[in-house]
Design brief:
By secondary structure, this protein is mainly alpha-helical. The chain is built from 3 helices and 2 strands; from the N terminus they run αβαβα. It has helices spanning 2-8, 43-58, 92-97; strands at residues 18-19, 68-69. It has a two-stranded parallel sheet.
């Protein structure tokens, strides 16, 4: 709820209505360059924080959003070793465990 309060406040105008946030991937490797943007490695906590962040950006108005959230890096992007040359293929079990 506190995240919603701070993200609903009127930001300085930047000329756009889309915010490229939040980063919803799990920070499991400290070498990953976007660890500081993440909500940690706990999947449940990160999901709750991501939902609150998005709701805060969109606001409470029933018809209009304050801004659109463009959630990024939502799965399997946090590997640092070979990220530019490997594929993130998941079977059903690994997908559920991730």
């Amino acid at each position: 709820q506190e995240i919603r309060y701070y993200t609903q406040r009127t930001p300085e105008p930047k000329g756009g209505l889309v915010m490229r946030a939040p980063n919803a991937d799990l920070a499991r490797d400290p070498r990953w360059g976007r660890t500081e943007e993440s909500f940690g490695e706990d999947a449940y906590l990160a999901s709750r924080m991501t939902v609150s962040f998005i709701k805060g950006l969109q606001g409470d108005h029933p018809r209009y959003w304050k801004s659109a959230s463009l959630m990024k890096h939502f799965m399997a992007n946090s590997n640092e070793d070979g990220r530019d040359s490997t594929s993130s293929d998941f079977d059903e079990r690994l997908f559920r465990e991730y």
